[in-house]
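Reader question, answered in our methods column.
A reader sent in the components of a multi-part assembly and asked whether the whole thing could be modeled at once rather than chain by chain. We filled in our standard form and ran it. Here is what they sent:
COMPLEX SIZE: two components
ENTRIES:
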Amino acid sequence: MSNRITDLEQLKTLLDKARSRGRNIGFVPTMGYLHDGHLSLIRTSASLHLFTVVSIFVNPLQFGPNEDYDAYPRTEDRDFALAQNAGADLVWFPRKQDIYASQSETTVLPGSLAHKLCGLSRPAFFGGIATVVLKLFNIMGPCHSFFGEKDYQQLTILRRMVLDFFVPVKIVACPTVREADGLAMSSRNVHLKPKDRHLALSLIRSINMAQEMARAGQLSCSQIRHSLIEQWPAGIELDYMDFRDDTQLANVERVEPSTRLFVGAWLNGVRLIDNASLWMQQTTRLQDSLS
Amino acid sequence: MSNRITDLEQLKTLLDKARSRGRNIGFVPTMGYLHDGHLSLIRTSASLHLFTVVSIFVNPLQFGPNEDYDAYPRTEDRDFALAQNAGADLVWFPRKQDIYASQSETTVLPGSLAHKLCGLSRPAFFGGIATVVLKLFNIMGPCHSFFGEKDYQQLTILRRMVLDFFVPVKIVACPTVREADGLAMSSRNVHLKPKDRHLALSLIRSINMAQEMARAGQLSCSQIRHSLIEQWPAGIELDYMDFRDDTQLANVERVEPSTRLFVGAWLNGVRLIDNASLWMQQTTRLQDSLS
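And here is the structure of the entire assembly that came back:
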């Protein structure tokens, strides 16, 4: 049985107890409304025999003034049951006033990594994420923390923060989990109307098409982009479609081992993002041609 | 004998070794050119039987574009000897590229506490300090860290950061150490010309006068300020003379237990600051009147 707790001091007591039994902490921070993507993070942590703690906290600091903080889905009982079944030892629902005390005002300021891709339309977003994750890391003292590659820019910014601030935690990146039709799992998918579903697949279709083109030898990013834009359907607003390296998130001109395609879009008010490496397929092709 | 080291990995090894011997770490971050103020911090840490580490690092991030980073005095041999004599177990001279790796870009953003007093003329100053101190805390993992009350705004901002980020360290504030004539010790005092010395004492004279007035029952901050401004000499440029509480640094109108006077000035290009509680004297007066 997992523990379900709210109180910060009780959390610390349970963590100390686990540590005194020689357990290392694996930490999965979430905003709740858990889906298979989150559960894969929890399962990965549990499979490493870590004392696995899941936090469920809709972080106000990462929502802009016109964003959906109040509308963000909150389903605590369901989330607790799912996290427990996936192997969580402890599920923590922090109180807002514990994470953001009334006089709290210090924040983390990510640098250039936060000023591109999703950062262009959401200027305070990654600072809010980095701030809450640093707070949670310091409360938890985890040896590993687990994040999905679906939010690749977040992952990159948190990796940079951990390096820059010498935070003693290992960030583990886990593959994007997808619906049967390929749609990247996201808590926001619930807001998609059934009639829009085929349009929501435009992101993964673009990524697959780019992977096909790279596999076929087309390594010019501008050529690939041209083809993707040509087939991008009406009815879904493209925010960005960028070819970037996987560490600095710098624009690249030719597909290389580090190249990822990042796509962001708006579909009837629902934000959708996706990304993937373009090289895995390329490697496969090279191996195929050698075999 | 203290250890004198530069290498980050060697530092970590020595800290792990000390911890494995059951020692807790006491940390004194400095920019070098040590004076009795720094040495009192080192002595306090050593007196608590902590494994006392002094870092000596002129932090580029806290200097503005027109400030004196290159001219800041660097005297490593002298500093090492002084720190050793004061009881340091280890003196660390970090390499700039270890603290600020080439792709490093994440910083700490203090809030409103950094936008007053010294923050008005030095907008990037406290963010630079908070950033380097957080890095050093995470490298060191100290249980206690020692700061002088002379830099009271810095102390307040770091205390806020530690609370806001849940950094597991106790900040210890140590009293301002003064020259025989009352001048608050500072590495920058070396830049004062002998003929300017009497003018440099304007800050502590103002503070003492305010303490006298409070002791005599004058608790109106604006009345006290009026008298201080009247006697402020020509030849030293006043930057601020503020009555503020000791936690939020909010302006106050009447002297209370939490009230401090903060003075900042420029003297022929040399920045001078000082501050003190106005209540200690008040308490003394009350005790005097009771005895």
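What stands out: Confidence is low (pLDDT under 50) at residues 281-287 of chain A. The interface with chain B takes residues 101, 103-113, 127, 130, 134-135, 138-139, 141, 157, 160-161, 163-168, 248 of chain A (CB under 8 Å).
Send us your own complexes using the same form.
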